[in-house]
């Protein structure tokens, strides 16, 4: 059985009991280094989730043929710009069990009281960001990456005349060094740790 378990923002206290139970029963645990580090007592086999996704898919097929219980740890929610989407496309939902988790966007909105009912959810991972659309939207939540982080977003918004909006930036959400900022674009600094951004565009 191949299970994809949402880690939430990365704090074990924010994982669901079902996800923790799946890990406890697994033969193999797959995840990023910081996720695996939280399961230091895991007695089975571990594999680091890296950029070689084709290699991972082939390896997971072998594990399924051997009928091993494999849990893939996914950041946040597996199907919100996560590894879950790729695994569903490859294996089909019939061969998977997906245990949802709290997305970083959900967590940030909960910590800051931002209403999610009218929010546009997007990501900069592996895509060209439509900054014009960001500038037009009233409320946007974006999962960022190294190429397009808070500073690049702020500069693009200022260039489009939306310097009066707010950027709510959540760094290392759910972890001991969590930091949350509410800034105007001109106040955004160059570097932030792993983060998600909510843009509140005042009109």
TrEMBL record:
Pathway: Cofactor biosynthesis; adenosylcobalamin biosynthesis. One of its GO terms (biological process) is cobalamin biosynthetic process. It comes from the Bacteria. GO terms for molecular function: protein methyltransferase activity. Keywords: Cobalamin biosynthesis, Methyltransferase, S-adenosyl-L-methionine, Transferase. This is Precorrin-6Y C5,15-methyltransferase (Decarboxylating). Residues 1-184 form the Tetrapyrrole methylase domain. InterPro entries: 4pyrrol_Mease, 4pyrrol_Methylase_sf, 4pyrrole_Mease_sub1, 4pyrrole_Mease_sub2, CbiE, Cobalamin_biosynth_MTase. It comes from Kosakonia arachidis.
């Amino acid at each position: 059985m191949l299970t994809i378990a949402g880690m939430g923002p990365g704090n074990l206290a924010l994982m669901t009991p079902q996800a923790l139970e799946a890990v406890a029963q697994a033969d193999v645990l797959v995840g990023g280094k910081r996720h695996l580090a939280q399961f230091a007592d895991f007695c089975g086999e571990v594999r680091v989730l890296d950029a070689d996704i084709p290699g991972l898919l082939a390896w997971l097929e072998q594990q399924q043929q051997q009928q091993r219980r494999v849990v893939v740890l996914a950041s946040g929610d597996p199907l919100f710009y996560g590894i879950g989407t790729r695994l569903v496309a490859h294996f089909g939902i019939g061969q998977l069990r997906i245990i949802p988790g709290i997305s970083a966007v959900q967590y940030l909105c909960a910590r800051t009281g931002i209403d999610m009912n009218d929010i546009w959810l997007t990501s900069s991972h592996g895509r060209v960001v439509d900054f014009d659309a960001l500038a037009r939207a009233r409320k946007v939540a974006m999962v960022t990456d190294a190429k397009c982080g808070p500073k690049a977003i702020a500069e693009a918004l200022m260039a489009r005349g939306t310097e009066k909006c707010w950027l709510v930036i959540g760094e290392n959400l759910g972890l001991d060094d969590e930091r949350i900022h509410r800034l105007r674009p001109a106040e955004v600094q160059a570097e932030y740790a792993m983060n998600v951004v909510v843009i509140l565009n005042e009109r």
